[in-house]
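Here is one chain, start to finish.
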Amino acid sequence: MNTVILASVTFIYLASFVVFLVGGITGRGSWGRSGRIIAIMGLLFHTVGLVMRWVESHQAGMGHAPLSNFYESLVFFSWAVCLFYLLYTLKDAKALIGVFMMGVAFLLMAYASFSPTVDTRIQPLIPALKSNWLIVHVITCFLGYAAFFMASSLGIISLMKKDSAEIQASVRDMLEKSLKAGFILFTLGIITGSVWAHFAWGRYWGWDPKETWALITWFIYASAIHVRVIDGSVSRRVAVITIIGLVSVLFTYFGVNYLPGLHSYQ
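Its structure:
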């Protein structure tokens, strides 16, 4: 039942994306507000679906949070992306940002729900994953990913909107906030992952492909913050670095799955 609800969220996010796109093209604020309302509705259904999956996991005798396999990571990633968009646009729907963020949320859910290569079944945990560190590590990492997506999307918009000082100031402010939030969350994700690895495998760091690329991603966004301090504001250089970071985030999440390692989703 949870997969049916979560699949329906895909179409709600698609509707939100389309409405935001129309709002971005027409410049009418009413479209942006409508897109935001649809996104809120989608997030509510999304949350219900995640809770139901957790409950169904308990009923099946597994009892773990819906964060353990590729399908569940895609679903939670999409949820986090939508959440960050809504949190960062409480006062203004900002249709153009909605196009980026809700477009990502839609694509993640579409891949999770309708790709023939993604297994949607609730699966038992392997022994190494039976730890409370699973929840903390996965949540902080994916919230960090979502914040980085927000920062990178704003970086793209910042480069697109260089002719508008007012929009630029608003975008730069949100970019800086999402960049800092993502960096803090992702740092916590790496730290909790290291502690978890120590308990599960007896070492804090093993240079697994996922660990290596997570560290590369961390350094890229750390350099963005460093350049922000040097330049005194969110400059063009910062925006470009966040876009480079987005490529690294995508490879850290998707790319390393094709490499042998402990973090490869099956």
